[in-house]
Please model this.
Amino acid sequence: DQQVKQNSPSLSVQEGRISILNCDYTNSMFDYFLWYKKYPAEGPTFLISISSIKDKNEDGRFTVFLNKSAKHLSLHIVPSQPGDSAVYFCAVFAGGTSYGKLTFGQGTILTVHP
Amino acid sequence: KAGVTQTPRYLIKTRGQQVTLSCSPISGHRSVSWYQQTPGQGLQFLFEYFSETQRNKGNFPGRFSGRQFSNSRSEMNVSTLELGDSALYLCASSLAQGVYNEQFFGPGTRLTVL
Model:
């Protein structure tokens, strides 16, 4: 039973345009959300996070939106650059005793074309 | 500041053997988590250690074990290897004691079981 779902396996956008990556979760107890980027042969790199008491967090070109009623998380990248091409994972902490345990989605492959 | 390091980067073993993987966290980080990444299951949490104590464990058989040393370095061991254990094993470190801390990943150890 997949608790964190990224329903789009891949996304292709033009350089300079907006990339929107989506993530849905099933458990309303999830209360801290993160996005990671992964290049081949490297470990995931932390991008941005948001707690459940907020609905938006911004860091440079990256903005994460949280819609708790819909149990939906999205990452916006504006403007997209070719170097953003990578696999993007959303991840969540379930709270309470979830020490060190992130639950990941399956990932979305983002390709940004020059 | 040096990142998370993992050794070895690549390993080839045969069924029935055992293997030990090593992880050195970022200096000052006391929490180390381990994950298994496979094409079919994605990133799955194995266990987490803080101050030499296992605080959390994922749904993996007892063949998978770990430990943490006083300098926060961690090892994981897999005994009686099976073909299905072929995967990328990632460790991640984080700074503080609480639940909600961004994790910083190493490059991983690619284990192939023949």
